[in-house]
Write a structure and sequence with these properties.
Length: about 100
């Protein structure tokens, strides 16, 4: 599935990865918290990132997200691939291409 990975102090990048919860947890460094952005896009971040004082990453809706975050597509309660357009837009917004 197509995701956008954004690490602190690094440009975002589009990646294609298997749709596996354990992989998402590994990428964010712990249990995931889901932050719904739109009906079809969510941010996955480390649920305990602030507690562990992970490096700041990006601001969203008045909140500072820390540690590595992933942008994923959503369909109901499932994670799905981002559209190519959404992936390019998100990566571009956060310094990637």
């Amino acid at each position: 599935m197509r995701i956008v990975l954004k690490e602190p102090s690094m440009p975002a990048r589009v990646m294609v990865v298997p749709n596996e919860l354990k992989l998402f947890q590994t990428l964010v460094g712990g249990h995931i918290e889901v932050v719904q952005v739109t009906e079809h896009i969510a941010i996955l971040c480390n649920e305990e990132g602030k507690l562990f004082r992970l490096d700041p990453n990006l601001e969203y809706n008045g909140d500072r997200l820390v540690g590595t975050v992933l942008f994923v597509g959503t369909k109901g309660d499932e994670f799905v691939s981002l559209s190519e357009t959404d992936a390019k837009l998100l990566a571009g917004m956060y310094g990637g291409f």
